[in-house]
Specification:
alpha+beta; about 30% strand
Length: about 160
């Protein structure tokens, strides 16, 4: 039986360009319930023309990843055939505005055809991905790793944004 994944926890790593320094910054985020993972957008979005500090930029990147993660996970209905604990990476390309243009399941994904279809469908059904307010941290390519866990234990996953 298909089980909708609602109220899960995710652990993920966000990688984004550090625009001021030209370096890549990374931050690990501890698992949080989905219901509280996304901070209100108004808290992290600066006024027009305001430069972001590196800490503010990282906070916005984290919020952006949380928003994407929540939108995708809210669409995932895991088939019973998906093995618990097995990761499946999906590569996403999106346009400015959040419209998804491609979703590719990594060849190393151990999920069967229905499982792979379920993760692709979750991503497609989440389109458009969050964009408004995140323009300064938008990434064309995103990797999303699904890891199914028991409902009581939550789930683990990674959202990785890559430089354009």
């Amino acid at each position: 039986m298909n089980q909708p994944y609602r109220g899960l926890s995710f652990a993920f790593v966000v990688i984004a360009a550090a625009f001021a320094a030209g370096a890549v910054a990374a931050k690990a985020v501890e698992p949080r319930p989905i219901a509280t993972a996304v901070a209100p957008a108004a808290q992290a979005i600066p006024a027009a023309g305001t430069a972001l500090s590196p800490a503010e930029m990282q906070a916005l990147v984290t919020e952006y990843a949380n928003a994407i993660r929540k939108k995708v996970v809210d669409q995932w209905i895991r088939p019973a055939s998906v093995p618990l604990g097995s990761p499946c990476r999906v590569h996403i390309r999106q346009l400015p505005g959040g419209r998804i243009v491609t979703v590719d399941v990594d060849p190393a994904c151990p999920y069967d055809a229905p499982g792979q279809g379920s993760v692709k469908s979750a991503v497609w059904n989440a389109s458009p991905l969050p964009y408004s307010g995140y323009e300064s941290v938008y990434q064309y390519r995103i990797a999303f790793t699904f890891v199914a866990e028991d409902l009581e234990e939550g789930a683990k996953g990674q959202v990785t944004a890559r430089e354009r």
